[in-house]
Amino acid sequence: MNLKAGCWIERVIIFFVILSISGLSLISCSRRPGSADDLVKKVINAYGGSEGINALARYRGSGFLKKLPIGKMVKNYPLDLFQDMYRYKECVAYVTKGDAVERWVWINDGEKILKWTNSDKKLNKPALENSLLQYRFPLILSWMQKSGVAGELIGNSGEGLYKLRFKDEENIIDVTVNGKGWLLNRIEVNRSTDSLIYAEEYSNYCKVEGIPIPNRVVRSVNGKPYSEAFVPVIKYGLALPDSVFMITAKDTLIEKAE
């Protein structure tokens, strides 16, 4: 091979290398959300579209709740969750030596919050959380796809995290999304009247029946975590009867844990 031919081939190779790098760069940029609406669509699609979100909004789950702050004595409580769209029930029990000795129940029946506890001891569960159940995972997904409130793309951390901001008359809702899979990373609600902040962080995602679900949820108020929920067992598409969303004798009965 003569010198001229070698130089020509080298130039062609360099040209295609540059073209390939440019193409990868364009592909990479095309994957970034161009607008708030674009990011919302990516999130909705990541959870299986409307069908996946409807399944997420109707489930029964079980796991345990860890009372924080971390660093002090931590107690684990068995946790049962029931959800049918915007109706929500959470049952927490304190078990010692195999016996359930305390129990707490919170219910959002779509109109009001019902509470019950069998003791004066109260699990640290701020009232702000009860008033903002409609924004917690996965209800925020239903709200995002149905809400008439336009979102604003306000930031990119440079670490693949994107932030959406929604505003209504009472709240400012910031939704942080992980650009690697377009799954929810954090929801933060700022009550515009008194600046109380409620937040949930989601991690340890796994797929259940093809739908991504976070096994770990950390809740905090004013930047201070107060509980950590692990929900490894999830069942979707359950037809939950209305009787689930009321406090029953079984809820208030203290019995030996199975």
How would you briefly describe this protein structure?
By secondary structure, the protein is an alpha+beta fold. 25% of the residues lie in helices and 42% in strands.
Protein described:
- It is a single chain.
- The protein is an alpha+beta fold.
- It has two domains: 1-30; 34-252, Lipoprotein localisation LolA/LolB/LppX (outer membrane lipoprotein receptor (LolB), chain A, Clam), CATH 2.50.20.10.
- The protein has six helices and twelve strands.
- It has a twelve-stranded antiparallel sheet with strand order 5-4-3-2-1-12-11-10-9-8-7-6.
- Helix 3 packs across helix 5 (139-146).
- The termini are far apart.
CATH superfamily of the largest domain: Lipoprotein localisation LolA/LolB/LppX
Assembly level: single chain
Rg over CA atoms, rounded to whole Å, is 24 Å
Number of E-state strands: 12
CATH class descriptor of the largest domain: Mainly Beta
The residue fraction in helices comes out at 10-25%
- The coarse silhouette is globular
Strands side by side in the biggest sheet: 5-4-3-2-1-12-11-10-9-8-7-6
Give the N-terminus to C-terminus distance in angstroms: 82 Å
CATH level-two architecture of the largest domain: Clam
